[in-house]
Amino acid sequence: MLHTQVQNISSRKTHSADKRYQLVHTEDDIVSSLELLKILYRCNSLHRWTLLIAPDNIPSKALLDTSSIDSSKLLVLRQRHLINLEYVINSALCKGNFAAVITWTDIVSEQQLARFKLVDSDTELFCFTRTSGHEASVVAH
Question: Are 102 and 76 in contact (CB under 8 A)?
Fold first, then answer.
């Protein structure tokens, strides 16, 4: 049986007290996929879009279907297809049509995260980051 330790989602404040995002610490791709499915499932119940700005290793449509996630509410953009990443994320945060924006720290830097317009936005911003086994156990406590 596969044993994985699912990490807690930790809030992390950026330079301004008004700007917040969720930094999701995971050890590997399997844990990342499990956490992503949890977030997608939760956002799916809000009856709004979810924007996933992703690397190439995202869950398949079959996996989304078996997890009861409506893939018709999921907008997936690959990093390599974006010209202006900050504009796309800020637009999604400001329009009010999205339950969440999900990305990875190897796509968006912490400096970019600090500049996003989260004030007066009810859209959640999740950013996955890879941590080593030792760091992940510290984060989970």
Answer: no
Sequential pLDDT tens for the chain (141 residues): 333 333 444 444 333 333 467 888 988 888 888 999 999 999 988 888 999 998 766 788 888 999 999 999 999 988 778 888 888 888 888 887 899 999 888 888 777 777 777 766 788 889 998 886 544 433 333
CB under 8 Å, gap of 24 or more: what pairs does 91-97 form? 92/51, 92/123, 93/117, 93/118, 93/121, 93/123, 93/125, 94/121, 96/121, 96/122, 96/123, 97/48, 97/49
Distance CA 70, CA 89 (A): 21
Q: Model's pTM, two decimal places?
A: 0.76
* CB contact at 8 A, 126 and 102: yes
Q: How far is CA 40 from CA 26, 32, 61, 74, 138, in A?
A: 16, 12, 12, 8, 25
